[in-house]
């Protein structure tokens, strides 16, 4: 379990994450983003309690990015020295006409490759360009190497949802316990 709080002039966030499952309660003020974070937790098998209050008079940017920062820090805290986990995960998820792919290495070294072009600029109150910003904040603060790709799709909702669910399944596999209890690294340690 990990709990992280972040308070700035732009956002006020309280988040608790359980890697081994639990309740999922998400409230960010951005309906579609709530839907995506709920999908990430449910499909990843994680417990997640999240309350974000953001500066909505501006737009959704700070709410989405700062939530990614806090979720990343929670993953980093919950994973500790990362010994005893599978480390790698990948998944391909179809969502109607769209296909999302994610590969992750929870090595402690952040890097994001994001390859998706969305045909619509918004899904509800969520600016589609914020999907990449969320995953960058998550990757940078958790220490994940994340490769996300949506090679085709016509509906931005389906495309983004496929990416979030693919990330969830990849993280579920990567954070699962390995059979040795040791760090999966020739160096003997991760990060």
Structure overview:
Belongs to the imidazoleglycerol-phosphate dehydratase family. Its EC number is 4.2.1.19. Keywords: Amino-acid biosynthesis, Cytoplasm, Histidine biosynthesis, Lyase. Pathway: Amino-acid biosynthesis; L-histidine biosynthesis; L-histidine from 5-phospho-alpha-D-ribose 1-diphosphate: step 6/9. Helix content is 34%, strand content 31%. The protein is an alpha+beta fold. A hairpin with a 2-residue loop joins strand 8 and strand 9. The two termini are 20 Å apart.
Compact summary:
34% of the residues lie in helices and 31% in strands. By secondary structure, the chain is of the alpha+beta class. The radius of gyration is 16 Å and the shape is globular.
- Average pLDDT confidence is 94
Largest sheet geometry: 4 strands, mixed
Which value, in Å, is the CA radius of gyration?
16 Å
Distance between the termini: 20 Å
How many domains comprise the coordinates? 1
Corresponding CATH architecture = 2-Layer Sandwich
Low-confidence sequence ranges:
none
The SSE order reads: EEEHEHEEEEEHEH
At the first level of CATH, what is the class?
A: Alpha Beta
Strand order in space, largest sheet: 1-2-4-3
What percent of residues adopt helix (DSSP H or I)? 25-40%
Structural class label: alpha+beta
Beta strands, count: 10
Beta content: 25-35%
* Annotated CATH homologous superfamily: Imidazole glycerol phosphate dehydratase, domain 1
Shape: globular
CATH topology: Ribosomal Protein S5, domain 2
């Amino acid at each position: 379990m990990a709990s992280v709080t972040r308070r700035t002039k732009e956002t006020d966030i309280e988040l608790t994450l359980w890697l081994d499952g639990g309740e999922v309660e998400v409230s960010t003020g951005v309906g579609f983003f709530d839907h995506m974070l709920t999908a990430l937790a449910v499909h990843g098998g994680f417990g997640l309690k999240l309350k974000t209050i953001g500066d909505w008079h501006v737009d959704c940017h700070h709410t989405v990015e700062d939530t990614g920062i806090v979720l990343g820090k929670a993953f980093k805290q919950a994973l500790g020295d990362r010994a005893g986990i599978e480390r790698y995960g990948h998944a391909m998820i179809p969502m109607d006409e769209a296909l999302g792919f994610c590969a992750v290495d929870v090595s402690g070294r952040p890097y994001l490759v994001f390859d998706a072009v969305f045909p619509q600029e918004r899904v509800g109150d969520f600016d589609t360009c914020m999907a990449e910003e969320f995953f960058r904040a998550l990757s940078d603060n958790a220490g994940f190497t994340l490769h996300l790709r949506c090679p085709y799709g016509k509906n931005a909702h389906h495309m983004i949802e496929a990416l979030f669910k693919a990330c969830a399944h990849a993280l579920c596999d990567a954070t699962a316990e390995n059979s040795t209890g040791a760090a999966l690294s020739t160096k003997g340690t991760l990060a």
